[in-house]
Design goal:
Blueprint (H helix, E strand, L loop, with lengths): L1 H5 L4 E2 L5 E2 L14 E5 L2 H15 L4 E5 L2 H13 L4 E5 L2 E2 L6 E5 L8 E6 L10 H9 L1 H19 L2 E10 L8
Parallel strand pairs: 3-9, 4-7, 4-8, 5-7, 8-9
Antiparallel strand pairs: 1-2, 5-6
Helix pairs in contact: 2-3, 4-5
InterPro entries: DNA_helicase_UvrD-like_C, DNA_helicase_UvrD/REP, P-loop_NTPase
Pfam families: UvrD_C
GO molecular function: 3'-5' DNA helicase activity; ATP binding; DNA binding; hydrolase activity
């Protein structure tokens, strides 16, 4: 799944370098990723809660493309009694919490048994800011699009067993 997000081009490795998938082979075989479309952000939050409840333990993460989404996910899950923590610049605030929440940028180098990539919607990934560059700054648009796709790829590779990709409204062009 994650490899399919990048295609055959060279990509930003999010560590000030570039990489491609030449010779890439995973030795792990998890379940196939599941896609979950929702009509609104509120129904997507309900879907995230339901999915985490179904998983019954293990290390679980929710990655989102925008910072404002972290608070919404944290509050929604906490209201149901789930113990959650936010991943900050120094890592998870409470490493023992069963559910970790953060922006996709924060997950590089971390691994979870189960993961939800939430908000993978057009206008969020890529952002409306990036999409607006297409006509005003085409070179920067191409760079920002490549970085956004790379971000999704890195986030999708942070899970070992189960990956759920959800969105509200129109799904991201990167999932097409």
């Amino acid at each position: 799944m994650a490899a399919g997000l990048l295609g055959e081009e060279e990509w930003d490795d999010l560590d000030e370098g570039s990489d491609d998938l030449t010779g890439y082979r995973s030795v792990l075989r998890g379940n196939p990723p599941r896609s979950r479309p929702y009509p609104t952000w509120e129904t997507e939050l309900d879907g995230i809660t339901d999915q985490i409840s179904e998983w019954h333990g293990g290390s679980i993460a929710v990655a989102v493309p925008e910072r404002w989404m972290i608070d919404a996910v944290e509050q929604h899950l906490a209201q149901t009694g789930m113990r959650v923590t936010v991943i900050g610049a120094d890592g998870p605030r409470d490493a023992e919490a069963p559910v970790h929440i953060g922006t996709m940028h924060r997950f590089k180098g971390l691994e979870y048994q189960r993961m939800i990539l939430a908000g993978v919607a057009e206008g969020l990934l890529p952002s409306t800011h990036v999409l607006a560059l297409k006509n005003t700054d085409p070179a920067r648009y191409r760079l920002e699009m490549k970085q956004a796709r790379s971000l999704l790829f890195v986030a999708a590779t942070r899970t070992r067993d189960n990956l759920v990709i959800s969105w509200h409204g129109r799904k991201s062009r990167f999932l097409s």
